[in-house]
Amino acid sequence: MLLPDSAAAAAKPGFIDYLFLSFSNSTAFSPTDTLPLTARMKLLMMLEATVSLLTLVLVARAAVNILA
Q1: Residue 36 gets which letter from DSSP?
Q2: In 3-state terms, what secondary structure has residue 7?
Q3: C-alpha triplet 7, 10, 14: angle, nearest 5°
Q4: CB-based contacts of 16: which residues, under 8 Å, 6+ apart?
């Protein structure tokens, strides 16, 4: 509320901001102590978390396959 009108207009959240928030709340591989500021960095961090999650799924699948 202390920002000037021009800065407040630039600080309004968009679709990528809400997407990043929901993605980081639904996965444990998301950043909890850092907040990327640009949409590009948010998308890249979401990609990194997705790759981590897929790697975990593939390793768990292989482990279950070995045991079965």
Answers
A1: -
A2: helix
A3: 150
A4: 39, 42, 43
Amino acid at 47: L
Identify the CA nearest to 29 among candidates 57, 60, 64.
57
What is the Cα gyration radius of the chain?
Answer: 17
Task: State pTM to two decimals.
Answer: 0.69
* Tens digit of each residue's pLDDT (9 = 90 or more) over 3-37: 566 655 667 888 988 888 888 888 766 566 677 88
Angle at which helix 39-67 crosses helix 15-26, to 10 degrees, equals: 30
With tokens 């907040």, the residue in question is: 35
> How far is residue 63's CA from residue 32's CA, in Å, rounded to a whole number?
29
